[in-house]
Design goal:
The complex is a heterodimer. By secondary structure, chain A is α/β, with parallel strands linked by helices. Chain A is 33% helix and 13% strand. In chain A, strands 2, 6, 7, 9, 10, 11, 12, 13 and 14 form a nine-stranded mixed beta sheet that branches. Chain A has a three-stranded antiparallel beta sheet with strand order 3-5-4, with helices on one face. In chain A, a hairpin with a 2-residue loop joins β4 and β5 (122-124). In chain A, α11 (278-291) packs parallel to α12. The radius of gyration of chain A is 22 Å and the shape is globular. In chain B, β5 and β6 form a beta hairpin. Chain B has a two-stranded antiparallel ribbon. Chain B contains 23 helices and six strands. Classes of the chains: A alpha/beta, B mainly alpha.
């Protein structure tokens, strides 16, 4: 394993791979819909019908498999927000009444008066006004004490544990990647999962399925804004061949994927975006993708840096502001009818030490709280806040809720089940939802 | 005389592209080995960049990256730059942590000068570059608080491979490397004798730190790995327990070289042959690489079809179809494609070959093509009315009038001028495009050729 000193960005990069443009045996559902003009705007049809691409793939295709069209009214959608670098959970969901917190966090501790109070013992970071507003509406679950057994303090290993959802194993796939495997059952679909605004993280890499990398801006390549562009796109599509070896075909398929992403997404992503921050832009794009009903079930976004070894107060303050703004922007753009179809959740590779250091920062820690947000979420605090009693300078908090229980709650409560297969065991469902996707809340 | 097909393949892998003139030069050699020798005969000093006076360190890094890409395209012996790119992705440092472009320049210039000399000397010099001292924290590795980052990666990623040593060896090596640091005011190497832990210790079965020159204790670990070290009996890689570390090391680097230049999983016979050469030549790199490049397996069908050009290599190949220079490239687009010079993603370098392929990265490659194609014809509408390509110029009159009713001949002319050959399927698609597109838009063939899968395969 890599050294624990490897930086967050390095760890993230290591856990992010290209979405392999594998040699496709068949045309995927979305592309099929697109080609026949059902999925993504009829404008595309004229220039594509009768092309070698369509002719190549249509024979033997079982059209009934795609008859379902866009996703069903009771299909849950998940947006996973990665907080990369290790977020200080103690200053996000603040145990304001715990004297140990004030002692151990020292100069960077927040006072009760400086937080947004949610109960007698707890305040939210002052910059989380939108999340507080949603808490007051009963739409925010706070899951306390999240972690996993035998915690690892390296960004790389801990991030791998969180992203894979199988702590302690060598990560080869991510928890939502395996969900995509089940969902797609071997068929290929560019518009089922997306990683927005960067490379594709392990979270959404499965054994046979991988989320599509989507830029956090309007694509141009493949958008076919003019007839001249469409002619060039068709030429590139026609270059795909199996006669020159699997890798040659993989290259041309990757170009075709890029064209398909451009064609599919350019009409639904405005230019320019309203948002300016990195997370906000990604969240705005996420909402546009969902509004367009292209079939996306899982979206990931992520940003940092949360690795606040020094001068944490300003650094984390900015991150909290960005998180809050990202959530706000997402719901501003998301069409109201999608509200009760979507759940937003956060994660980070670890929390931080309860004792602050001499530089006004904290070091790599363990357990931390996270948010689950959405109209159908049953607001409240879940799990057990880790005790700060008798924590010595370099001791770390003991986790109280296994991250697999966190994931199982979302998989079984929102994404249609399958947690024991995906997580390799049965984990407690925390009951985070008032109602299933698309169901009105009583 | 070697076969033209083999020379073209060899050149694409070693010199980024197979220019017709260079192919003709090497096809005339008596043997394939002579062609390989010519490719590997690189100057001792390839020169370095000069920078615009008064610019920021960030801009120095950008100028250097463009200079380096330019050398990849226009060096008379591009294998020198190709090897430097390999080492940049193997003995990794990144400006994102190093933060000093001149330190990155120094390290990459070392790889350019000595990337084809000897692995032992290269590894020792690499270890003491300021970029590496900072990137893997050896600058804060001291007797009172050892930092294992560098010593661990030196074994795990750089030389031996994971599992061929124990934690005790990491600890010994970390202590042996204490004291090598840099002056943070001048960013020059600095030996800090009081930080050094000079106690004798056991490392891979050998007692080290016996010499009186404490500055050599760290580099001695490299001598042990390339010398009499033994893989410990408790190492996790069971198959290698008890073997000479120099053999394990030679195999580790041989596999990495094969993956880089051939792209496939290395056949066992190749690794054995490369290891044997490496050890018998005392880790001299030219004989080692010659063995690789002259193996028949290197010319097998799976290898010919087995490698995707990295974003940098594809950019070099694209520039080589034009008269453009390194200064014309967009580094941020290269980054979006997945490979910005001076910024490897992590200590294990870039994931290669198929890993480059995803929709977002290909969008960036398409954007690189569009941008560079546009730059070949700055006066196409209102100036010189020409498209400037590697083999000469193509005039607006030719595109619009001469070949108006011969679009297929126009495609051939474009390919000739760009010095590119493509598969029959790609050719058919280009012909079809030229036939369908209005005559006044056919200069877009330049961009399309740059976006063919053929140009993105090595």
């Amino acid at each position: 394993m890599l050294d624990s000193d490897i930086s967050t960005a390095d760890a993230l990069a290591h856990l992010s791979v290209a979405d392999h443009a594998d040699d496709r045996a068949s045309l995927d559902r979305r592309r099929f819909l697109q080609l026949i003009g059902m999925g993504l705007g009829a404008g595309a049809v004229g220039s594509v019908l009768g092309s070698p691409v369509l002719d190549k793939f249509l024979p033997g295709y079982d059209a009934s498999a795609w008859a379902a069209g866009p996703i069903g009214a009771n299909d849950g959608i998940l947006v996973v927000i990665g907080m990369y670098g290790g977020n200080d959970g103690l200053n996000m969901v603040v145990p304001v009444s715990d004297p140990n917190y004030a002692t151990q966090h020292g100069s960077i501790a927040l006072t009760a008066a400086n937080t947004l109070p949610i109960d007698a013992d707890t305040g939210l970071h002052p910059n989380l006004t939108e999340i507080k507003r949603r808490w007051d509406l009963g739409q925010v679950a706070i899951v306390e004490g999240l972690g996993y057994p035998t915690p690892d303090l390296s960004h790389f290993t801990s991030m791998a544990n969180w992203m894979s959802g199988r702590p302690g194993t060598t990560p080869t796939s991510g928890w939502m990647g395996r969900w995509l495997d089940n969902y797609l059952a071997g068929s290929r679909d560019l518009f089922a999962g997306a990683a927005i605004g960067g490379s594709v993280p392990l979270t959404v890499i499965g054994a046979s399925s991988v989320a599509t990398g989507v830029p956090s801006s309007k694509p141009t390549f493949g958008a076919d804004a003019t007839e001249a562009e469409a002619l060039r796109s068709n030429a590139i599509r026609a270059m795909s061949t199996s006669n020159q070896g699997a890798l040659h075909q993989a290259v041309s398929n990757a170009f075709v994927d890029a064209l398909d992403v451009g064609k599919g997404l350019a009409p639904v992503i405005p230019d320019p975006l309203v948002a300016t921050g990195a997370l906000s832009k990604s969240m705005e794009v996420a909402a546009h993708l969902l509004n367009a009903n292209l079939g996306f079930r899982v979206l990931t976004v992520g940003w940092g840096d949360f690795d606040s070894h020094a001068s944490q107060t300003y650094m984390q303050g900015q991150r909290m502001l960005e998180l809050d703004e990202g959530v706000r922007r997402f719901y501003e753009v998301l069409a109201p009818e999608w509200g009760n179809r979507v759940t937003v959740m956060t994660f980070s590779e670890f929390g931080r030490t309860s004792w602050s250091n001499s530089g006004g920062g904290t070091d790599h820690g363990t357990a931390a709280p996270h948010f689950v947000i959405g109209p159908n979420v049953k607001g409240g605090r879940y799990g057990q806040r880790p005790s700060l009693a008798n924590i010595a300078r370099w001791q770390r908090l003991q986790h109280t809720v296994d991250l697999r229980s966190y994931y199982a709650s979302v998989l079984d409560g929102w994404m249609g089940g399958g947690s024991s297969t995906i997580l390799g065991g049965t984990y407690e469902n925390l009951g985070l939802f008032r109602a299933g996707p698309g169901q009105p809340v009583a | 005389m070697p076969a033209q097909r083999d020379i073209e393949h060899l050149l694409r892998r070693t010199e980024f592209v197979a220019r017709p003139a260079r192919v003709a030069e090497l096809v005339a050699k008596p043997t394939l080995a002579d062609a390989v020798a010519d490719i590997l005969a690189v100057p001792a000093d390839p020169g370095t960049a000069t920078f615009t006076p008064g610019i920021t360190d960030w801009d120095i890094g950008s100028e250097y990256a463009r200079y380096w890409v330019d050398r990849m395209v226009y060096s008379p012996k591009p294998m020198q730059e190709r090897m430097a790119l390999f080492w940049h992705g193997h003995f990794v440092s990144s400006r994102s942590k190093v933060s000093v472009s001149l330190a990155m320049r120094d390290q990459i210039d070392l790889y350019r000068r000595e990337g084809l000399t000897n692995l032992r000397t290269l590894a020792k010099k690499m270890s003491l570059t300021v970029a590496m001292l900072k990137y893997l924290d050896n600058n804060v590795n001291r007797n009172t608080s050892p930092n294992q980052n560098f010593a661990r990666e030196l074994m795990e990623l750089f030389l031996l491979g994971v599992g061929n040593y124990t934690e005790a060896d990491v600890e010994s090596a970390s202590r042996a490397w204490t004291g090598h640091s840099y002056d943070s005011a001048t960013y020059t190497y600095l030996w800090r004798p009081t930080w050094h832990d000079g106690a004798r210790k056991s490392f891979l079965g050998v007692t080290i730190n016996r010499g009186s020159d404490a500055t050599l204790h760290g580099p001695e670990t490299i001598d042990v790995m390339m010398g009499s070290g033994i893989v410990p009996s408790t190492a996790t890689n069971v198959a290698n327990r008890g073997r000479r570390t120099r053999e394990v090391l030679a195999e580790h680097i041989s596999r990495k070289l094969w993956a880089e230049f051939a792209g496939t999983t290395a056949p066992a016979a190749v690794i054995t042959a490369m290891r044997t050469t490496a050890i018998s030549s005392n880790f001299s790199l030219k004989p080692w690489i010659t063995t690789m490049l002259t193996r028949p397996e290197f010319y097998a069908d799976d290898v010919r079809k087995g490698l995707v050009r990295s974003p940098i290599a594809a950019t070099v190949a694209t520039l080589a179809t034009t008269n453009l220079r390194g200064a014309d490239i967009s580094l941020s687009t290269l980054e979006a494609a997945g490979q910005r010079p001076l910024f490897p993603p992590n200590v294990s370098g870039w994931r290669t070959n198929r890993s480059w392929l995803n929709a977002a990265a290909m969008t960036a490659r398409a954007s690189i093509a569009s941008s560079l194609a546009w730059k070949t014809m700055p006066g196409y509408s209102t100036g010189d009315l020409l498209i400037h390509l590697a083999g000469g110029t193509l005039s607006r009159t030719e595109v619009r009038d001469t070949y108006r009713y011969q679009p297929v001949q126009l495609v051939q002319r474009v390919l000739d001028l760009m010095q590119v050959t493509v598969s029959p399927e790609t050719r058919a698609a280009l012909d079809n495009y030229a036939t369908t597109a209005p005559y006044w838009d056919r200069h877009q063939l330049i961009r399309l050729v740059m976006q063919t899968p053929d140009l993105h395969m090595a």
